[in-house]
Amino acid sequence: MEKNEIKAVVEAILFVSDAPQPLNRLVEVLGGVPQSKVKDALRELSEEYENSGRGIQLDEIAGGHQISTKPELRIYLDRFFQVRKSMRMSAAALETLSIVAYRQPITRAEVSAIRGVNCDGVFQSLLEKKLVKIAGRKEVVGHPFLYRTTSTFLEHFGLRDLSDLPKLEELLHAYEDSGADETPEATPPIPDSSESPVPETKAEESA
What class has domain 87-205? Predict the structure, then answer.
């Protein structure tokens, strides 16, 4: 193997590993590449991280090597994880957000009718997280608010626009991976937009 290829493999292994990797393990994975070449790759990676002003570094700890973030950046990482934690959602919020995403614009009453429960508290949480927004009023008695997903929703799911919206199962799986508080046992089906409208719950939506 060429030097750059060895370095690339070593970097990839350390990047995905959640624990320090000993030198002999790296040699084994590389299929018997001489230990000296693996050491050279580790040294060069360490120098590159240090000299290029990167936010990561290569540590030699606990009998192995591991890629870690630089200590001086901890304040920013703490802030990042605090923001990410604030985006954790319950199963009820996840179901509600899914319905809004696939049926927008939609009223609270319509979402409540699909889920079979009142969604007022859930909507407040989604609004606070800026995952949904008010998008006008529906032209029916009471003129209830209509809701749509936001750019924050697109960013959180890595979507360019709503045309990239995945199948419902993929959406649920994505949010489970992102830290949903619980997994719904059974998510109500999302009716196709061609179906007849869900009956309005005027008392809940009247403004």
Answer: mainly alpha
Q: Say yes or no to pLDDT of 175 above 90.
A: no
Structure tokens of 140?
Answer: 């029916």
Provide the CATH topology of domain 3-72: Arc Repressor Mutant, subunit A (1.10.10)
pLDDT in tens, 127-150: 988 899 999 999 988 899 999 999
Q: Which residue shows structure tokens 């950046």?
A: 73
Question: pTM of the entire structure?
Answer: 0.47
Residues of the chain with CATH 1.10.10.10: 3-72, 87-205
pLDDT in tens, 28-79: 999 978 999 999 999 999 999 999 888 999 988 888 999 988 888 888 877 7
DSSP letter, residue 164: G
